[in-house]
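Lecture 7, part 2: worked example. A protein chain together with flavin mononucleotide.
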Amino acid sequence: MNNNCIIVYESIYNGNTEKIAKTMAQTLGCKCIKPEEALKTDLSRFSAIGFGSGIYFGSHHPHLLEVVEKLDRNAQDVFIFSSHGAPVLGKYHRPIKSKLKEKGKNIVGEFSVRAYDETGPWVIIGGGNVGKPDEKDLKKATKFLKKSLAQHCMPDYYRQIKTKLLIKDGYPNDYQLIVKDANVVLKGDFVTINQSACRACGKCIKACPLGIIELIENKAVPVKELDCTLCSLCVNNCRERAISLHYNWRDAINVAKRHAKRESL
Ligand SMILES: Cc1cc2nc3c(=O)[nH]c(=O)nc-3n(C[C@H](O)[C@H](O)[C@H](O)COP(=O)(O)O)c2cc1C
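Predicted complex, written out as structure tokens:
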């Protein structure tokens, strides 16, 4: 778990901003909380905080503004995000931005997407921005963070390995690499588990509906990774951010073929 960052969000209408907040939290490997919880949390201990909500009458949600008002005055990195219904964002970020500046915060970036809205004139045509935020928007959210908060994003060591080995059922490959003078050991290709980061909590094992991971010598090991259906439950349940999934379109099709015959878990 990334304890240096946190995301505070409000999403009262369609859960549009919640989708963005959750994707961002996954990219950073951090928690995302609602304003109610944020008011009970010491936000001064985080080095970066994201604030996001839908846009309601030209501004972020008042609950979010209340959290910002109660922040300590110190130089923390912050980013702002939102989802809005109008064709352009306009000056909707201005109220939260000026409050953050009053608190001495360093605004590292802003992100906004158009999202489903059936208020005002949209009602005539049965809603605007139907289906948004979509996958493309979520990818843009990830890209935004990788650019503006690169130092806080979850590192994917597997991508740094140049020579990948043949994947064999039951025998996850071992890879070793040196990161900042430390030895990092990875196991698996589809489901890669950073052995150096694993704390053997067993949450990934409990979460996986297909029994792909086992605890071996006090580390989580992807013993049946060819059976992985890419649901990401293991990734989302790993507080240490030790697990990552890797596949291309051909792998994804093979997964679908392998599982076509399955009738139950
Ligand atoms: C009460 C209300 C007021 C809104 N006001 C605006 C607005 O001023 N400008 C805009 O672009 N969208 C406006 N919207 C649309 C929302 O910003 C949009 O649907 C957003 O994605 C909602 O986010 P949420 O689902 O996370 O709550 C409004 C929606 C509601 C319900």
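Residues 5-152 form a domain with the Rossmann fold fold (CATH 3.40.50.360). The longest strand covers residues 106-114. Keep this in mind for problem set question 3.
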